[in-house]
Amino acid sequence: MFHPWSKRNKKKGSAMMLAIFTITFVLFLATEISRLTINEYLTSATEVKKVQAYYAAKACLQLSLLRIKAYQQATAALGKSVPNLGMLDMIWRFPLSWPPSLPKELSSFDSSTIKKTVGGSLLKNQFLSSISAEGGKIDINDLGSPSEGLRNQTAKQLLQRLTARVQNNRDDFADRYSNYNFQELINNITDWIDDDDQSLNGGSEKGMYTDFRSDFIPPNRPFKTKEELHMVEGMTDEIYALIEPEITLFGVKGVNVNQAEKDVLLSLFAPYDPRLAEEIVTEILKRRNNPELGGPFKDEKEFLGFLGGYIDSRTFNDDKVPLFFGAEINFRINCTGIVGQMTREIDAVVYDAIAVKEHLQNSLKEDLKNQGPNQGGQDLTEQCKDKQGEEKYKCLCQNIEEGQAKLKCLESYRLQGQNQDQSNKQGQGMRPGPPKMIFLQVK
User: Fold this and answer.
1) CA–CA distance from 42 to each of 45, 46, 252 (Å)?
2) CA contacts within 13 A on the Cβ side of 153
3) Distance between CA atoms of 324 and 133, rounded to whole angstroms?
4) How far is residue 253's CA from residue 142's CA, in Å, rounded to a whole number?
5) Are 138 and 247 a contacting pair, CB within 8 Å?
6) CA dist 237 to 242, 297, 326, 429, Å?
7) I want to staple 253 with a disulfide (CB 3.0 to 4.6 A). Which of 169, 359, 398, 417 is the partner?
8) Sign of the dihedral defined by the CA atoms of residues 29, 35, 40, 41, in that order
9) How many helices, marked H, and strands, marked E, lie in the chain?
10) Domain containing 216 — which CATH number?
11) Do the domain assignments include residue 9?
12) Would you give the DSSP letter of residue 142?
C-alpha cells in the first residue's frame, strides 16, 4: 500500500546528506586554507628573521672592521712609544657581543645604565663577534713558496703537529696513526701546490689520482679553500679535523713570534732536544702573555737575547725563516647574527697584501744570501747598475748556475726593483681606507 509521506521522507534524507557533505567540504577547505596560511606566515616570518639575522651579522662585521682599523691606527701612532705592544691587541682580541653580557659583580647603577643604553639603541637583534690572528697559524700554501726557507719551515710545522699528536696521547687516534707516514702526506700536499708533475715521494703526481679521470688533478696551484685538502691523497677526516683549526691560507710568509701557536713555535726548535724545545716554548708563552715578565718581544734582538739563556742563539733558525715581532697584519673575523632561533654567520679575512709581499721579499733575500749570488767576489750591483729592466735582473743573477736558484734570484730582484719607491711609501704609516677583505663567506 502506498504511503503519502514516503516520497517526502526520501527527499528530506537526501537534503540532510547534501548538507552534511557541504559542511564537511567547507570544513575541509577552511582547514586546508588555514594550514596553508599558517605555513606561509611561518615561512615568511622565518625569511624575515633570516634577513634580520644576516643584517645583524653584517653590522657585527662592520664593527669588527672598525676595531681592526682602530688597532692599525693605534699601532701606527703609538707603536714605538707603547712599552708593551701587546696592550694594544685588546682592541681587536676580546670577544664582543650585543647586547653586552653583564658580569654579576657589576653595580646596580652601572647595570641599569647599560640596560637603558641598550634599550635606546636602534639595534634590536643580537650578534657575537670574534677576531683571531692568521699570523699565528700554519699557511699550507707556503709548502709551494718560492722561498726555500718558508717551504722547509712549513713542512716542519705540519710534521711537528702531527707527530706530537701521536706521541703525546694515548687514544684511538694515536693507535690508528702510530705507524702512519706523515712525511709522505706532507709531500702529497706539497705536490698538490708545486708547479711540477713529479711527486716528492717518487713517480708522477697524477699517478695517485687516476680515479679522478681529470688532467687538472692535482691542479699545481695554491689551495683556494681548506676543504680542498680532503682531495689530497692520504688525507683522512681525522687528520683534517686535527690540523684544520691551526692552518690558514692567509699567512704572513713567516712566523709572528708574538702570535704563533705553541706547535708553530715548537717547529722552530725542531733541531734541539724535544724536552729542551718544550721548556723553551713554555717559557716563551709565559713571557709574551705576562707583562710583568716582559710581555711580547719587541724585536729579534730581544728574542735572541731571551733564547741565550737556554741555547746558543747563533745556532737558532738555520733555515732563516722570517720572524716578525710587530703588529698583527692579517685577521679572521667571525660574526654571528641571532634573531630568535634563527642565526646567520659571516666569515671574513682581512689581508694586508703589501706587508705580506714585503715579508716574502725579505725571505727571498735570505735565500739569496744563503746561496751566495756574488760568489765570484765581484760587486754585481756596481757592475750591473747601467743595465735596465730584464737585462739588469739577469746581470745581477749571472753567477747563479742552478736553474731553480736562478729563477728565485730573478724573482727576488724583480720584487726589489718593481715600484720600489712606491712600495716604500706605502709601507710607511697607515694604509688609506678601510681594512682590505679578500675572503667573505655567509653561512
Assistant:
1) 5, 6, 47
2) 28
3) 13
4) 7
5) yes
6) 9, 37, 36, 44
7) 359
8) positive
9) 15, 9
10) 1.10.40.60
11) no
12) G
Give the pLDDT of residue 386.
63
253: nearest Cα among 122, 349, 143, 89: 143
**Position 182 in a domain:** yes
Integer Cα distance of 256 and 328 in angstroms: 8
Q: How many CB atoms lie within 10 A of CB 382?
A: 8
What are the cell numbers at 41?
606566515
**Residue labelled with grid coordinates 736558484:** 405
In order of 14, 72, 257, the CA distances from 23 in angstroms are 14, 73, 79
Residue 188 is predicted with a pLDDT of: 93
Number of domains in the chain: 2
How far, in Å, CA of 219 to CA of 397, rounded? 30
**Cell 653590522 sits at which residue?**
59
Measure CA 137 to chain center. Answer: 7
Helix (H, G, I), strand (E, B) or coil at 400: coil
What is the rounded CA–CA span in Å between residue 377 and residue 373?
Answer: 10
- Of 237, 191, 185, nearest to 218 by C-alpha is 191
- The type of residue at 202 is G
What does the chain come to in residues? Answer: 443
Q: What are the residues whose beta carbons fall under 8 Å from the beta carbon of 271, sequence distance 6 or more?
A: 315, 318
Last residue within a domain, chosen from 246, 278, 311: 246
- Which residues touch 175 (CB under 8 Å, ≥6 apart)? none
Would residue 119 count as lying in a domain?
A: no
So what's the pLDDT on residue 128?
Answer: 93
Q: Please choose, from the candidates 363, 144, 136, the residue with its C-alpha nearest in 3D space to the C-alpha of residue 267.
A: 136
Question: In the chain, what's the furthest Cα-to-Cα distance?
Answer: 139
Q: Which domain does 156 fall in, by range?
A: 138-246
From 246, 281, 302, the end of a domain falls on 246
The single residue listed with the C-alpha cell 606566515 is 41
Q: Name the grid cell of 356.
A: 705580506
- pTM of the complete model beyond 0.85: no
Q: Show the CA angle centred on residue 101, arms to residues 96 and 105, nearest 5°.
A: 130
CA distance 177 to 132: 30
Asked if the structure places residue 133 within a domain, the reply is: no
